[in-house]
Design goal:
Largest sheet: none
Family: Belongs to the V-ATPase G subunit family.
Subunit structure: V-ATPase is a heteromultimeric enzyme made up of two complexes: the ATP-hydrolytic V1 complex and the proton translocation V0 complex.
Number of strands: 0
Region (Disordered): 57-77
Helix content: over 70%
Shape: elongated
Structural class: mainly alpha
Order of helices and strands: H
Keywords: Hydrogen ion transport, Ion transport, Transport
Organism: Rhodocollybia butyracea
């Protein structure tokens, strides 16, 4: 019976080795599938990123013309307003300076309206 028992133990050991080998192969297969999935996901991410960058560049190129036109319009308006302010300054500066001098030099002392006569 010991030979038969030895043979049974030997069979169990071989089956255990085979099972361990199958488990190891399954783990390696799983690891390989995870690597493949990561690689595939990175490729998809890069493709998506590239497509969005191209889309943004097209959008930006389509808006560049309107941006430069808007900038030119703002520059023109600024120039017109600056010219108007400069002309207004030139025509009114003498009058303003004279009014300031008159106020400073012609002081009329008066009692404050809140001051009561005692």
């Amino acid at each position: 019976m010991s030979a038969q028992q030895s043979q049974g133990i030997q069979t169990l050991l071989e089956a255990e080795k085979a099972a361990a080998k199958i488990v190891q192969e399954a783990r390696q297969y799983r690891v390989q599938k995870l690597k493949d999935a990561r690689t595939e996901a990175e490729k998809e991410i890069e493709e998506y990123k590239k497509s969005k960058e191209d889309e943004f560049k097209k959008f930006q190129a389509s808006r560049d013309g309107t941006t430069s036109q808007a900038q030119a319009s703002v520059d023109k308006d600024t120039e017109v307003k600056l010219k108007s302010i400069t002309e207004s300054y030139g025509s009114n500066k003498d009058t303003v300076v004279q009014k300031l001098l008159d106020r400073v030099t012609q002081v009329k002392p008066e009692l404050h309206k809140n001051l009561r006569k005692a």
